[in-house]
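I am writing to request your help with a piece of structural work I have in hand. I set the record out below, with my sincere thanks for your time.
___
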Amino acid sequence: MHLRRGITFLTASALVLASCGGGGSQGGQNGSGNAVVPTPTPTPPPSGRLFAPPAQEALSVSEVQTIIAQAVNEAQTRGLPSMIAVTDRVGNVLAVFAMNGANPEAVVSRNRIGAPLPQGDMLGLQGVAVPSQVAAIAKAVTGAYLSSGGNAFTTRTASMIVQEHFPPAPTTVGLESGPLFGVQFSQLPCSDLSARASDGLIGPKRSPLGLSADPGGIPLYKNGVVVGGIGVMGDGNYGFDANILDTENDAEEAIAVAGAQGFMAPTDIRADRIFVDGTSLRFSDVTEAQIAPSSGNFAAISGTAGMLLAVEGYNTGVLRAGTAYGSEASGMRAATPAEFSNPDAFVLSDGAGNARYPIRGGTDAASVAQPLSAGEVRAIMEEAFAVLSRARAQIRRPLDSRMQASISVVDTHGEVLGIVRSPDGPIFGVDVSLQKARTATFFSSAVAAPQLQAVPAPPGGLSGADYVTRVRSFLGDPNALTGTFAFADRSGGNLSRPYFPDGEVGQIPGPLSVLASDTFSPFAVGLQTDLVVPNIVDHVVYVASNGANADTQRGCTKVPNSPSGSPRIANGIQIFPGSVPIYRAGELIGGIGVSGDGIDQDDMVSFLGLNNAGVRLGTLGNADPAIRADRIVVNVNGRGVRLRYINCPFAPFLDTAAQNVCQGL
């Protein structure tokens, strides 16, 4: 994750994580009328470690009932019957409650930069009707997945950081795109990484619509530990907040805040305590002071105000307790020494004691002269984790906390060779780090163009061949996307913005973005959307039909399978920074992706970790500077604009004041 903007969000500027105070006692008020929830004193790391794993907290059945009852009470007060979903931290759906009279359907917003999408048309996900319970689950997952013990983000926060300008407002036209531009298309229902209900309680679970930008999703905490999220869908419009300058009294958000009473994030780690270039992020426009006195009596509302709802692929209609993150059952736990040598590392597990993605060598011997060995993969991940452990966090409170994130390594077929994470990195970063690793590898490969050219156009969208033609015309290179240049995610992100250069209105859109800038919305971004819209629609139909229709496959996109048997980008692509391709003697052999903190931090861990592994081993490393995408200069109305490759932060480490740590590498 990143919360920085500057020359572009894809280059350097300083993120200011400014403190606005905090503390106080439970039940107090801050200046906004919000109840002040104190931050527990951080637990010191165990001896010999740099990180303290979060306590294994979880919601009980009775607590889930209380959350639902409190939300229903507010919904009744506001006259908005709603769908209410509660998840645990790893995405298990603990309950969905359908209030009597709740709108059974929500329509994905038609709003965009220009005039709204006409009724009856579809572009990306715009105009798609989805079951309301699907939207509520996506909101709950978003609140849980974007948050950690050091930061608490909501769907309103997500809305602020995924749009074409940051901050989004009528007066900010011309500023660069949101720092997490594109993250909404992660955790997809077709992801080969994200678990399904049929896999048991292990996470991270998929989200039916990816991450949500529609206010009404709030993280849930116990004793300062994030334990899940609540999502509310009631107004029939699955949208986003295009104007951050006003303050909304949003009923869905109010219902979610009411449900979260007693489980609110500590005040000092909420998004409104995190500043980006002097702009405070938003946590919620609704304060606790605006919430009606609530009752947590579930028996009083169950069967009278509504009922628990079974949701195909997510919940059988039975209340259940949450799974404690960090336990074997959650699918995300501390690594054993044999799995990863660093004692701070966490891995994904299958719930039965086995790592889901044990470190291994490359599977692509049919495609490269010398695939990555298991020892090389281990060295890359160890060096990247060492950089991560020294890095100063950009989104975590208190100030000068250590960075926390997830790291993925893949081969040229997109096969996972290893995933490792720090103990309290936001959960969303697992899937995103893999998306990033695969995306950088795919776009740097000799097969990117021919594989994209085989992808058909979705309804209202463009084919893969259309995007290849646009890239080649845009770059003035008839051989683009055939392995002649190395593309980091920062490079592909440049080409995916609705304005190129990023934020400069009146210029042409990037060739991987929508055809015209005024047709952009967070639900229709270009290639990233067109690759996965058929999968998302198939899944929505599956849920709506209660399983009568087939679910989407495990493995996103219509990109042809690699020789290993699955798509090279089997959980979709990602278009914000934090990855680099891996080379041996000028040959592409894989990629590394990092996600969970600032995008400059993510860039640094991937780039510097790979560099350090190359120094240690002498057998591999980063792309030769002569073929990196920042050697490409695009002619924009007679002006040369250079693509970006990576950007490392200033004074990034806690143990040294060193500057320019990536320069010259």
Remarks:
- Confidence is low (pLDDT under 50) at residues 1-32.
